[in-house]
Records
---
Amino acid sequence: MALFLLGCSVNTVPIPTTLPSPTKQSIYYSNTTVTLTFDDGDADNYIVRDVLKENDLRATFYVVSGFTGTEGFMTEEQLRGLYEDGNEIGGHTLSHTKLSEVRGADLRKEICQDRLNLMAYGFEVTSFAYPFGFHDEESRQVVKDCGYNNARTVADGPEGIPPGNPFTLKAMPYIVQDTKFQKMFRYVMEVEQNGGGWAIFVFHHVCDGCDQYAVDYDTFSNFANWLGHQQQVNGLKVKTIDEVIGGEIQPGVGP
């Protein structure tokens, strides 16, 4: 089992014992990039800070700025700590509004003001995630007009590098409370076996059964440990959205 997951390395990383059966060869992920994204800015997301740092991993946290510091959501100080570790802070609208329900000036306020709020905290904000994954021509254009370089959806992944459209980035299926390590492992392995690409993971809560859209900490920690080791010894690349897309940081735009 260890040979399959760790290749020729003599280092050991905590790995669940219920992984798929080993093969005769190690998997090298030289053509695969993984991105860990967290939606909403939930307070329980902060628990992953240390395990990300310990494994030299950086994630993208999409924040609903209107909720920052309120009950159940991360504070400005916590967001700044994540940012100082090298994690990315992205936008997720002002009030987590489904973008099919707002038009015109209201749509622009949800997207532009959210980015301005995050920039006021001192963050370089280039990435956006559509709440509930909804997007249409008008919302995509407003995301561009507000100064974002990319936007993530919630389905149809994996994505290619470079992506077909940076404003409709495709993600792997939602991580929910019954998603185990083996499934996340398999998503990455299948991307590599199919020629490589970009596996964008979407997380929400990090807790034990507190929400349908939750991953328990032990499962996430095991996955982070595995990703960190594969990055170190087997060629896997783990990057933020901005690290993959790049582009100049655009000035803030008023609503």
---
Amino acid sequence: MEPQPILAELGRRLRTARLAADLSVSDLARHSGVSRRHVTEAEAGRANLTVTTLHALAESLGLRAGELVDFDVSALRAGRIALLGLRGAGKSSVGRALALALEVPFVELDQRIEEQTGMALAAIFDLHGVAGFRRMEREALEAVLSGGGSLVLATGGSLVRASDTFARLRQTCHTVWLRARPEEHYQRVAAQGDVRPMRGRPEAMAELRALLSEREADYARCELTLDTSGRGVPDLAAELAARFSAG
């Protein structure tokens, strides 16, 4: 499993401090009372250290525990921007324009899932159910993140309902909720030539409003909310580019 960025940074700092102190892994394990295996796992970014373990390691290195964890978490997300929202929010169109402005790759997570599995999303749900799709979604995200480098990522509309994957996304990327009125979601999907979700279903708009209401609290956990209603793609992409180019 790919190490989490926070733990990876802690592991890097721990190893740097150990080498600066001219200690081997075995020396640090002996001085701190922490097993050699645990020290190795910590330096690899795979161990979520307890406060007491962190204190023991830091003390053995002649440091305060705070010196090992005093870093800017937001810096770990630099260069990666994830767009979230329901279908019709503008994730693909704004995402492509933003990636072009920032001169970084644009990735659609649903497309990566299909490429990795060799199946359409509908087939994945039919054959593997929601649980299977969530597993494939997480694997696809990890594959994208492991590639390193800056990018703009458009996510599936329901990713926020997968709490672990959403937490991972917020930890590793700047997250932006592209918010729009229900009517605009519908109009944009229809403009793409697809009115299947609404055809013959007069209750569909009410269901869309309910879905937005249901997920609003989750989407609101994104780092930034951008209202796209009544705004064009160039304007939205320019605002995001200015924000993230500045840091």
---
Amino acid sequence: MMDFSLNDEQLSWQNKARDFSDSKIKPISVPRDQIEGGFDPFDWSVIEEGSKLGFRTLAVPKEWGGPGTGFVTQALVMMELARGDSAICKAFSQNWKWSHLIVNACNEDQKSRFLAPFIEDHRYMLGRGITEPNAGCDNRLPPKSDPKAGYRLKAERDGDDWILNGEKTFIANGSVGSLFFIDARTDPNVDIIHGGTLFLVPKDTPGFRIGKIFNKAGWRFYQNAELIFEDARVPNNNVIGQVGTGSVKAAGGDTTGGDLFGDLELAANAVGVCDDANDLAMSYASNKMQGGKKLVEHQLVQLAIAEMNMLTEALRSFVLRVAWEHDQGSRSANGVLMVNYSTDVVLKVTRLNMDIHGALGCRSNPRVDKLVRDAMIWCHLAGDSNLRLKAFSKLN
């Protein structure tokens, strides 16, 4: 039996996230977005303040020192943080994705070495290095038995260490991360399913450095950068699972740190963007006079606002259902459909908000334009919609 009523803990986290979003995130959202380059200097204050409230470590189990919240709670918090700023929300939730991975795929020694500093240091951020200049969507669905497809970063054994050489690109939290999960080829003669290995690489690893930090149209607070490996020396005890397992699930039996949480993360974030767009549209239409009456009294505007709210509430229900399924241990393919639906919804809702504001409204309210630019990110997150549907077909 499904019961979607929120318990006291979920309501407490939701309210805490809403207060933090209103008081700390939203006031810096547009000014941060308008900084040339979008990333210099990085605003650590909002990360530190949010971390002290538990938003950076939300997914870490209580036995390892974290809040130990469930997926419904995580979805609720993401919705509230994204209502303040989608990119700042993603900077926090990116850590949840990979702390899920540490807990589910790493051994006890690795958990002890890396979860403790993650909990203690409010600036400790996590990232995953998969994408390369010549390897993108084929990392998610690599052609069978094709050694030329997928990531090419090379890892060679040298005694008790591995030597990594190559480059990753567009890596989330790239310029601010303290620990990265790096996918590398330990056998270049077979496909990545059989020749890939996942490594834990701290930022101070010899031979590892940050390259270019990318400027973007949307999500400008959220850092994406190149990771450069030049004879980077990584100890063998930083290998996750077994050498040559090629995927997170094979490496450590992970069922939450990859696509499942990733889909929930993106869709919940989209709800927050839509909530913000709905608030902006209603506020503007209720105060703007057009043709001798308020804009909200015009039927076309009423229909647009109604459609925005309808789509947003449908997406919210979809997200909470999938989050609930996660909490019940269900591993259905609904997440793939959910994130595709979230893409359609966030693009439509932010565009309708822009239409309601019109040219003058957009110029006087840069947040309207920002939401549209942020929404465009969904078109190519974790692959495009066609790739996700292809992945969905393989799950059924």
---
Amino acid sequence: MNRPSETEYAPYYQSYIDQVSEADILPVLRSQMDELDVLLGRVEPHQETYRYAEGKWSIREIVGHLIDGERVFGYRVFCIARGEQQNLPGFDQDDYMLTAPYDRIDLEDLLSELRLIRLGNLAMFRTLDEESWSRRGVANNNSVSVRALAFIMAGHLRHHMNVLRERYLNSLPAQPDSTEASAS
């Protein structure tokens, strides 16, 4: 498998493509869920709704956003690999989050859902022939290839793992003091 050329995706996605240095994308997509589990393994239940600043998503919401992205990118892969030529809709991540239930769902359940969706997408990727990987379609008024979408999926997850490392996990609130909790 070759990396996608810059003509296979919108410039907006360059930062996600840049997150993936590997040429063989399937092993990257397979290993990412284990990496995310390890990364978030130290997050305690009381920390799952932590936000590093006002107006930022919680840890649960970031994983929920990854679920949304995985679904949308996977649907685009499916449609384009099957030859769809109609413009596939975009999605506004902030609008989606306004009605999403993610802050009310345990992190463990969100990670399980994300893993299931990723496994479904991997099963689909494994059925694609060379022609399907190169096939192009239109999503959100931009030309994109199936190959580019696979790299975008991997880069999107890596981007958010970096955000979690840099902005969340180093500043998690400590365990609430049990004496304070019982006194109130």
